[in-house]
Amino acid sequence: MNDERENRWLLWLVAIGFFMQTLDATIVNTALPSMAANLGESPLRMQSVVISYMLTVALLMPASGWLADRFGTKRVYLAAIILFTIGSLACAQAHALWQLVIARVIQGIGGAMLLPIGRLAVLRAFPRTQFLAAMSFVTIPGLIGPLIGPTLGGWLVVYASWHWIFLINIPIGILGAIATARFMPAFFGTDQQRFDTAGYLLLAFAMVTISVSLDGLAELGLKTVMVTLLLIAGLAAICVYVLHAGRHEKPLFSLTLFHVRTYTIGVWGNLFARIGAGAVPFLIPLMLQVSLGFSPLQAGLMMLPTAVAGLAAKRWVTPLIQRFGYRRVLVSNTFLTGLMIMSFALFSANEPLWLRIVQLALFGGVNSIQFTAMNTLALKDLETSQASEGNGLLSMIMTLSMSLGVAAAGAMLGAFSDYFGHAEAGTALSAFQVTFACVGVITAISAWIFWQLDPNDRECSEAGHVELE
C-alpha cells in the first residue's frame, strides 16, 4: 500500500515537471516585444531567447538516460529541478540580452532532463500493464502547458512585468525539489555501459553550428562567409558521426534504426515538417504586437484557438489512419498544414477577427494531426530492443526541428525586414507576410517525404503519442 501511495506521488511529481518544461517553452513568445523594449533590443531580433532554450533541451536529451543510469534518477531529477529554478531566477534578473540567453541555457539544461528522467522513473516504478495509463496521466499537464502558456505570458506582461513569466517557476521549483527528495525513487542502470562521448560531441557540434548559421545573418550579424563555414562544418560533423556510428560497438544512436523504413521516414518528416510548427508560435504573437497593435494579453488569447483545436483533433488521428492509411493522411495533411501557414500572410489590420480565429483553429487542428501521425509512424515498427533508443533520437529531432524553425523564421524575418526597409518603424507587416509564405512552402514541400510510404499501411499504434505528445 505504501508503494502504491509513493507511486501516486511520483506521477504527480513527473507531471508537474513536464508541465513546467512545456509551459516555459511557450510562455515566452508573447513577452518578446516587452522584453526587447526593456532590454533595448529590436523585437524582430529576439529569437535567441527561444532558440537558446530549445537547442539546449535538444543537446542534453541524448545524455539524460546515461546520466540517470550512472548517478540515479533521484539525483539527476533533483539537479534538473534545481538548475531549472536557478535558470528561471537568472532570467528574471537579466539586464541585457546576452545575460538572458545564458540564463535560458541554464534553464534548458534543467528542462532537458525533466521529462526523460521522469518518464524513465515511471517506466521502472510501474509494471508494463500499468505504464500506458501512468504515462497518460503524466502527459495531461504537458498538454495544458502550451494551452495556457501564451495567454498566461501575455497576462503577466500586462498586469505585472515580463520578469514574472520566470519568477512563477521559483515556488514551483522549490516545492518540486522537496517532493523529489521525498518521493523520487533512486533507480540506477543495471548495465553501466560507456557513454559514446565522441558521437555525442559530434552531434552536439552539428546542432549548434547549423542553428547558429541559420541565425547568423539575422540576430548575430555574422558575415556570409562565416555563416557558410558554420553550415558546412555542421553538415560535415553529421557525416563524420555516420562513419563513427557505423564502426562503434555502442554508438549514441545506432544506424540500424534507419533499417526500419517507417522510422526513417518518420524522423526525416519530423525534422522538416516541424520547422513550420516551430516558426508559427514565435511569429504570430510577434506579428500581432509589432505590426497590428495587439497588447501582449490579446496576442496570447489569439493563440488559444490553436491550442484548443489541437487538443480536440487528437481523437481523429486513429480513425483517419485506419481508414485512409499513413501515406494519404500525412501527404494531404502536411500539404494542408503548409497552406494554413501560408494563409497567415493574409493577416492585416482590416481582416475580420472571426477569420483570424478560424485560421488559427484550423492550423491547430491539422498541426496536431500531423504531430501525432508522424510520431506513431516513426515508432510503430521498431523492435522492443530499439524502442528506447529510437524514442530518444526522435525526441531530440522533434525539439531540434522546433529550434531550427524559430532560427529560420528569425533569419527570414530579419532579411525581409531589411529588404522592405521599414521594420524599425513598427510596420513590418510585409516582412511577416513573406516569411509566413516561405515557411508554409517549406512545410508543404516536406509532404514529398511521406509520399515514400506504403499506401496500404493503416496500422496505428497508440503507444507513440502517449510518450511524445
UniProtKB/TrEMBL annotation:
Subcellular compartments: Cell membrane
Residues covered by the Major facilitator superfamily (MFS) profile domain: 10-458
Keywords, in A-Z order: Cell membrane, Membrane, Transmembrane, Transmembrane helix, Transport
SUPFAM superfamilies: MFS general substrate transporter
Coiled-coil stretches: none
Membrane topology type: Multi-pass membrane protein
Bilayer-spanning residue ranges: 49-69, 76-95, 101-122, 134-158, 164-188, 200-218, 224-243, 263-284, 296-317, 329-347, 353-373, 393-416, 428-451
Key word Amino-acid biosynthesis present: no
CDD domains found in the cross-reference section: MFS_LmrB_MDR_like
Top-level taxon of origin: Bacteria
PANTHER family in the record: BLR6921 PROTEIN, MAJOR FACILITATOR SUPERFAMILY MULTIDRUG TRANSPORTER MFSC
Protein name: MFS transporter
Source organism per UniProt: Jeongeupia chitinilytica
